[in-house]
Amino acid sequence: MRILHTMLRVGDLQRSIDFYTTVLGMKLLRKSENTEYKYTLAFVGYGNNPDHAELELTYNWDTKSYDMGTAYGHIAISAEDIYATCDSVRAAGGNITREPGPVKGGSTVIAFITDPDGYKIELIERKDDAGGRGLS
Description:
- This protein is an alpha/beta fold.
- It has helices at 13-23, 82-91, and strands spanning 5-9, 27-34, 39-45, 54-60, 75-79, 95-102, 109-114, 120-125.
- The chain contains two helices and eight strands, in the order βαββββαβββ.
- The chain has a four-stranded mixed sheet with strand order 1-4-3-2, with helices on one face.
- A hairpin with a 4-residue loop joins strand 2 (27-34) and strand 3.
- The chain is globular.
- The two termini are 30 Å apart.
């Protein structure tokens, strides 16, 4: 078994596609509309299944925002140079909510950003960019 994708409900599909492609460097992999049930799906990622997990952005046409709730944590993405990555995210208009630095009680360097719908994304520094494309 393996993770195929994670789904996020978004209030403005194009705004979210722009964030994940422009700020985080993902690609728009595919998009589909369901007119009968009034929703659009957009899949973004650093590569397609089965080699990479994808992020499914679900836009329900009649919903502009969602309550975040208390169960959601974050999505984690690797970056070779987290400081340069945060500079790139900032320059592209992204919101850094935890500046890069070591995790409390450890040595792993992390940072957090927030997407336009308020979802948290953890950046984890991996010098070998273990398994990812890298953002820097």
